[in-house]
Amino acid sequence: MPSRPHHRRGRTAAATAGVVLAALLPLHLAGGATAHANADPSPVRVNQIGYLTGADKIATVVSPSTSPLPWEVRDAGGRVVASGTTEVRGHDAASGDHVHHADFSSVAATGAHTLHVPGVGTSVAFGIEDSSLYPDLAGEALNYFYFHRMGTPTEARHLRYPAHAHDALHPGDESVPCYQRWCGDERLNVRYSWADAGDFGIYAVNHAISAWTLLNLHERYPDAHPDGSLNIPESGNGRSDLVDEVEYGSRFMPGLLPSTGLASHKVHNHVWSAFPTSIGEENAQARSAQPPSTNATYAVARTTAHLARVLEADDPARAAELWESARDAWQRAESHPVLTYPNAPQAEGGGDYGDSKTTDDRYAAAVELYLTAGALGDSSVGTYRSAVTGSPHYGEMGQFDWAEVAGAGTLSLLTVDNDLPAADLARMRSGLLSFADSVIGVLGNEGYPAAIPGSSRYPWGSNSFIANRMLVLGTAHDLTGDTRYLRAMHRSMDYLMGNNAMRLSYVTGYGAFAETDLHDRLAWGAYPQTPFPPGWLSGGPNNELINDNATPTGQPAAKSYAGPDTAPQAWGSKENTINWNAPLAWVATHLDRTAHELLEDGGSGPGPGDTEPPTAPGTPTVVATDTGSVTLSWAAATDNVGVTGYRVLRLDGGARTPVASVTGTTAVVTGLEPDTVHTFAVEARDAAGNVSPLSGSVTVRTEAGGNGPGAPGATCAVAYRLTSQWQGGFQAEVTLTNTGPTTLSGWSLNWDFPGGESVSNMWGGTASQVGGRVTVSPMDYTANVPSGGSVTIGFVGSSPGTAGVPTAFAVNGAACAVE
C-alpha cells in the first residue's frame, strides 16, 4: 500500500475509562445490549455474523501444525453436518500467525453453527442464512452522520440512544473569522456541517470524498434509501433521506469561499478539545477558518456540482445555487496559483489533511462539473469535458481515499451517462475490472481475508482502504454481473466481522466480540453507561504512522491495534470518521441488495449443490523471468459449470504455499529472491468451491542480481512490474529510481516491448510509441527525482497474447540498472 499523509497528529485530555461487563451475545447485538471488546479467545476465526447459503465459507485457523487438521461444522444441536481437513497456509506476513484455512462452503443448511477443530478450538456461533446478513447495517452506518451533525441540536427521537441528544454544536460557525486575517475582516458562514471525526473540525477535502461516496451510492441505487428510511428531521419531505443527509452536511461548503480567492482548507478550534468534552465547553472554544488551499477549492467545486446534479429533479432552485457555487469555486481554483495548505501550529486544534498534489483534485472536480453541465444542459459542458480528457489522470483507476481522488472521478464517469468516446469508457471499465481482479488476487494470498497485502504496512484507517476496495468490487459486480466480485466483497466483510488477527469485529454492535469504544468525544462522554451506536467502523490496524499512546508499536501490521477502553489515547487505530463510515454504508447497501445472488439456488454460480471439481489445469510454462519474479501461463481447466479462478502454488518437498490467485491463465509470481530455484503448479476452483487436481509442475530459476543488462555503473534503476493481466490487456507499474548524486530533472525514459504490446492509458507520465519503442516524459509532479528518490508511473496496455516484460531501459539515452 502506498503511504498516505493523514490529518491526525492527535493530542487528547486524559479520561478515565469505565469497564463494560456484558454478556457476550451472538450475531447482531439488539437493543441496548453490548459486548465488551475483549477479543475472541478461539484460534478458529469466522465471520461472527455468518454466511449466505451459497457464499464462500472459509475460516482461518491459527495453529503451528504443518500438517492438515480435521474440522467439523456442528449445528445448534451439536450434530456434525460437515467435516474435512484444513489447508495449511503457513506464515501470514500481515499477522505473524501460522494459519490454516477450513473451507466449509458446501454447508448450506440454515441456522446457527459452530466450526470445531479438535485440539485447537471451537469458533463463536455464526449463522448460515438464506436472506440478507446485514439488513440494518446500511441504515445504521448512515445514522452515524445525523449523530455528527453540527449547527443544530440533535434530537432523542432521531437517535438510537436518547442519552446522545445534545444542543447545537458550534452554532457560532455562522460567523467565523479568518485566521490571522488572511481574508481581511470577512467572516465566513460555515454553520451546517458534520463533525469530521472524533473531534469537531470541518475539512473540505475529507468532506468531498465522503459526500462523493454517499452520492455515488445514491446514483447507483436511487431507490435504496428513500424518504422516511433513516428517521432524520427531513424525513417526510418526499426526497431520499440519503440525499437530505448529504445536503445538510454539505451546506457549509460554499461558505468556505470568501468574497475573493481560494477556499479555507479547514475550520477548527485553536486548541485540541478535551476528551470527553461538554457542549458548553466545546462551543466556548476559539475557532477560525484556517488559510486557503487549491485542494479545498476544487473540493468545494466537486461536491457542490455533484449535489446540484442529484438535487436538480427535486429542488431546481437549490440545485441552481449549488451549481453557481461549483462554477465559482472551479474558476477560482483555475485562475489562482496553486497553493497547498500551510499548517498553523499555533492554532492547530485538529489535524490538517495536508496534500501537496492537486492534479487529481482538479480531475475529480472537472468530472463532476462535466457530468452536471451535461445533465443540466449547460453550455459550459465542453470546457469541463476538455479538462477531463486532458487530465493526466483521465481514466485512472486504483486505490482511492481523501488524498488520492482520481479513482473516484473515473468511477463517476462509469456511473453517470455521458458523451465520452465509447473506446475511452471501455478502457476505464477494463481498468476498473483489472483493479478489482487484483483485489481478488490479494484476498487469495492472505492468511486472513484482508483486501490489502500483508507485505505492506497497514495505513492509518486500513479498514477504510478495505471498504473502498469493496466499493470497487461492488461496482465491478454491477458492471458485469459476475458473482466473483460479490463473493470477494463477502470475504472482505468476513475480515471486518471478525475473521482477522485481532479476533474482533471492527463494526460496533456486530458480532459476539465487537468493538465497543472508538475515538469519538461525544460518544465517549456517555460511555459505558450508554453504548456506542451500532454500525460505526473502526479505523483498524495501523503501523504506517503511530503517534498515540495506545496503538502498540513493534507488532505485525494486522496486530497494530489498541485494546479495549483505550479510545481517548487510540486515535491512530480506533478513530472513526465520515470518510470511513461512508464506504461502509455503500458496501452494506450493495450486500443487502444482492444477497439473493449468493443463495443456494441463486446467482450465476451453481451454489454448494455442485460437487464436481474442475479438471486439472495444464502444466504451467515460463513466459518470463527476472531477478524477483516469474511469469507463468497454462492451459485452462474445464468444469461442468465453469471455472472461476486459479491458484499458483510453490512446491517445496511436501509443502504447498499459495503465491498467486488469478481469474485468467497467466500469473506473475513476485517477491522471489534472485538466482534461486522454485517449483510451481496450479489448481483450479469453481463457484461452489470445488478444487481441481494439481497440475503438473514446472521448475524455474530467477535471474541473478546485479546492475542488469548493459548498465555497469548506471545512475538510474528501473523496476517493471506486471500488476495484472486479462485477455488482450494488462496493467503495469514502472518505478524509476535515481541512483546518481544529483537530482534527475526533465527525464525521458525508453524501453522496447518484446511482443506487440502497446500503452493505451498512462498516469504519472505521458507516453509516445513507435513500433515497440516507448518513450515516457514526466508529469509535473514526477518531473524531479532527487538523489536516492523514486517515482512510479502506471499504465493500462493491450497485448496480442501474454504480455511480455521489457528487459532494458534507458533514461536520457543512458542505460539503467534493471531491478
UniProtKB/TrEMBL annotation:
Ranges where the record places region Disordered: 336-356, 548-570, 598-621
Coiled coil start-end: none
Signal sequence, start to end: 1-35
GO biological process: polysaccharide catabolic process
Keywords from the UniProt entry: Carbohydrate metabolism, Glycosidase, Hydrolase, Polysaccharide degradation, Signal
Highest taxon above the source species: Bacteria
SMART domains registered for this protein in UniProt: CBD_II, FN3
Protein name: Endoglucanase
PROSITE patterns reported in the protein's UniProt record: CBM2, FN3
Residues annotated as domain Fibronectin type-III: 616-705
PANTHER family referenced in this protein's UniProt entry, alphabetically: ENDO-1,4-BETA-GLUCANASE (PTHR22298)
InterPro entries: 6-hairpin_glycosidase_sf, 6hp_glycosidase-like_sf, CBD2, CBM2/CBM3_carb-bd_dom_sf, CBM2_carb-bd_dom_sf, Cellulase_Ig-like, FN3_dom, FN3_sf
One annotated GO molecular function: polysaccharide binding
Residue spans of biased composition, Low complexity class: 609-621
The organism of origin for this protein: Streptomyces alkaliphilus
Sequence similarity: Belongs to the glycosyl hydrolase 9 (cellulase E) family.
Domain CBM2 intervals: 709-819
Keyword Phosphoprotein among record annotations: no
